[in-house]
């Protein structure tokens, strides 16, 4: 079942290609491997793929950590609970853009990562394309030694159809490891090695299936996350949990709400529900005129950071 969900989720990726091209020059081999991971499942034209590889290969290392963070954010658009695999419908702006980031604090988080962190915890959301972009980010951070260890927190089983589980992570790594493209395969080999040596660890907990707010973390999970240098929260459901699923005024400070967090926090989220904070005065009103469905149509995103 997980392999079917994994393939279905990847097949939504075709609509992302033009947006990926726009940022591809920044992202070097980590991004290349992720694109190959998409291409394998979507049957992409080989000429298009190899042209893209030549563009990426011409760019110097390292990959842009801000670009990879944004790639991880926009990967959250690939959600089978909203848009079916292979369907024509999707958010109005596949792949997003800086103009569609309502709050963008990726640079602040990148500065923390540049100083180096002992441990990064990622609260995963969807398998498939989003997980691929998350793994590209993990690969870069570990290989560049910006993070010494990454802990991936997943669901025990899918609550929504494309929720990522530990088994999905292992499936994704095997997919890359057996890939014919050398860049994708090299990424898979690196990730497998990091899992074997313990630099990547997998966790699952039933709390992620509950309706409880984040400030009601079980004691053992709170202790676990308090060891983190940075918590990276992915997706809409985790964002709603961080806010207690409450309708705060749009201009409420994200930092003030999440003061309870046991560690510095970065949330990367595409809007799919009527809850968001941290906006500027008048921003919500302008958005309502521009896009009446902006809160729920998956075209807009936020990257919000609580560290220093």
Output the keywords:
308 residues, alpha/beta, Rossmann fold, 7-stranded mixed beta sheet, 12 helices, 7 strands, globular, disordered N terminus
Write the layout of secondary structure elements.
Elements: H1 2-10, H2 17-42, H3 46-57, H4 65-74, E1 101-104, H5 106-115, E2 120-123, H6 129-143, E3 150-154, H7 166-177, H8 182-197, E4 200-204, H9 219-226, E5 230-234, H10 236-242, H11 254-257, E6 265-270, H12 283-290, E7 301-305
Helix pairs in contact: 2-3, 2-4, 2-6, 2-8, 4-5, 4-6, 6-8, 7-8
Give me a quick take on this structure.
The chain has helices at residues 2-10, 17-42, 46-57, 65-74, 106-115, 129-143, 166-177, 182-197, 219-226, 236-242, 254-257, 283-290, and strands at 101-104, 120-123, 150-154, 200-204, 230-234, 265-270, 301-305.
Order of helices and strands: HHHHEHEHEHHEHEHHEHE
The helix content, as a percent range, equals 40-55%
Number of helices: 12
Question: By CATH's scheme, which homologous superfamily applies?
Answer: Uncharacterised protein PF01937, DUF89, domain 3
Structure classification: alpha/beta
Please provide the count of β strands. Answer: 7
**CA radius of gyration:** 18 Å
| N- and C-termini, Cα separation | 42 Å
Overall body shape: globular
The CATH topology label is Rossmann fold
